[in-house]
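Forwarding the complex inputs:
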Amino acid sequence: MDADECTQQVTDFAYNVFSQACPSRATLEHVTGRWGSLTLGALSGGALRFNELRRHVDGVSEKMLSQTLHALERNGLVHREARPTNPPHVEYELTPLGREVTDQVMSLIRCVEGRMDDVLAARARYDAR
Amino acid sequence: MDADECTQQVTDFAYNVFSQACPSRATLEHVTGRWGSLTLGALSGGALRFNELRRHVDGVSEKMLSQTLHALERNGLVHREARPTNPPHVEYELTPLGREVTDQVMSLIRCVEGRMDDVLAARARYDAR
DNA sequence: CGGGATCCGGCTTGATACTG
DNA sequence: CAGTATCAAGCCGGATCCCG
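Prediction (whole assembly, four chains):
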């Protein structure tokens, strides 16, 4: 009874990520997932092509990048612009909605990056025990 | 040459998540991971006990919650307070650092929740093709 | 170049059971 | 209550081959 139909009182929102059944949960996972956040972050600087993205997001495989882009496109965060030339020229860029979400993601990334000294210190303390 | 030693020019930060080797990448994944963000979000309202957390984060298993909490504790985001009573009484709460990060996470969650109508519309459009 | 399709090994995840 | 131990299932990710 704590989370049933996206109509819970945990927050005041119609869509509640804390409920398993709520579609916002899936979207959040795409956005925050292993590659989702980094892909959005990479696109925050402007449109990029597939292999540019691949180089920018260190460690991502073709398959995962492709999969991630599809998910982000389906959720309306990324726009795919394909020009039927030869060789093909495909660009990915953030939609207005995507930009909004990405601003939040980048803000989080910057926060984590900026506090890494504290994090590493905490880890050292934890591991010392 | 795009991402080697956390000393890249992609951003101006010493720690660069876009580099595989950078420790901030691992921390970001804990924070944004499937259960990390929801756990932090649950704790943003105040300290909670293990099973309270479990009920709050719908769908998480004992193992994953335990694992997630350990990771967050190790990274200095969550403090674990155990009182050696019987039955045991353990509380988890955000550290100052954790609260800072969680504020960003909650901001992201609120953003996604608030734009779910747009997301669902985009999905419907995408699937219609 | 920009991917889709497939196969496969391995880490991650989720039930379940058990302990203090 | 607050977890750990164990085990099976499954998804992740790499490699490979393919196409337009």
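Residues 34, 60-64, 86-88 of chain A lie near DNA strand D (CB under 10 Å from a C1').
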